User: What shape does this take?
Amino acid sequence: MSRPSRSSKAGAGWGCQHLGEFVDIAPQSRPFSWLRPGPLIASRNDVISRHLGGDPTDEMRRAWMRRLDDYARAQGVAPPSRDRIVTRFADRDRISVALLGDPGEGDASQYVVVPVFERVAAHTDFAVVCSDVIYPAGGIRSYEDRFYRPYADYAAPIYGLPGNHDWYDGLTGFMTTFCDVPPDAGAPDVPGPGNALQRLLRRLLWRRPPKATVEDVAGMRWYRDAESQQAGQPGPYCAIDAGPVRLVLIDTGISGGIDRDQAEWLREVSQGPQPKILLTGKPLFTYAAVQRSRIEGPEDLDVNQIVSDPAHNYIAAIGGDDHNYQRYPVRQPDGRTILYLVAGGSGAYLSATHQIPNVDRLAPAVHEEDFRCYPLRGDSLALFSRGYDRLLRFGTGRLVISPDDATTIMAERVGITPPRTGSAVVGERARRAADRVFPLPARGVSPAHNFMSLLFDTNTPPLFKCFLRLDATDQEVVISCWAATGCLEHERDPVLEDRMRARREADGTWTWTSETPGRAVP
Assistant: This one.
């Protein structure tokens, strides 16, 4: 196993000598870019929903769920049960699951994960795509190069939970791919929130889903047509009884909340002593702050209230949307610890980590020494300095910060011991460059993110992509973060960036322990 980035600059992918084999399997078309007019226009439903009365996806989701029941009745079978629980893995004594977050760009930044995924996750029982299966805006035809082809050799089923980008086609591509809805069904036509004028404008401007035929879908499914690869998902939100644990997949639509019917379902499937892990398109904890995932209705309720309820026995919550890895073991008022992870680094452009503040400001709930991120803050600053040097200094190198200098600078800024050895002395030029680069937009959530992605969505090492593997028995749960740097040596000898292990105590509670440098989490 290669050394991780916390102990080796080479482990991060700096100084890569040989490109990985991903370059041979990635599509040879132009790399995906948000700078082109097409992706921006196709993604307009996000802007429309935020400025013309609100997000219609709660109503659309309810309509989709009714359709699923109607399709089942028309085929002479019982409609999906109200609990919408996948039970095919329920009898397993142990389970292994691969988790891919925000993968679907369809270029080298997605395919770089594939060789490592095939080596590390080949024998897992199933996989889950956690948020934004397809960029830029769903669409059935886009699934060929962004879903079916990259994971053609993965022998097990793949489940999914939609992100906001999957809703930009009314969820039609997702529902056809994961829930077997006919490709010509079209998106549900609902009035949505807002006044009459807002609804009219939204109807006129709203992007209609791209059309596809049964033959189109059959041609794509050829890549994953083995019986062992079929999933049969009962809806855009569902639970999977994965042997000793229950995975609860929720659909947060465009705006990051859930509808009242889904909330009622979530409360029901969260009952009981079985340990549970929430999988969501929007992280509940990211960038050292709690994020609200609101529940539809007049009351001020959110998903984390359900997750943190001791009666529901959640031990972890994993979300995509931010395109990196972050780890927060959060101590609850009753003494339990829930592990909150951000895991959106499996293909989309990088969300910077160097702007994550010192996590000790959240103490005693979580401590900086228990926090981890990938890329490291220093590696993030070094990478982004290169992009801003190209933009603001025309590639002269005046804003470029070396990984060693960036490691030292970020340790000083955050007030921590450097996670790996950095520069003993940092020159004034590097410090001035850091002062200039550090505050610039880098997370990909501001209106400027479409422009910045040209700089940050690199297709050459180091790429700083990752995915998770979950292994569970009735006595322990292990979650591992595996890196994909783009270097050939790391395809052949993968890099384990982080690992957390939870053990069941005699009283039924779970204790999380870090297996990277750091203390056990009480």
About this structure: Residues 517-522 have pLDDT under 50 and may be disordered. The two ends are 28 Å apart (CA to CA).
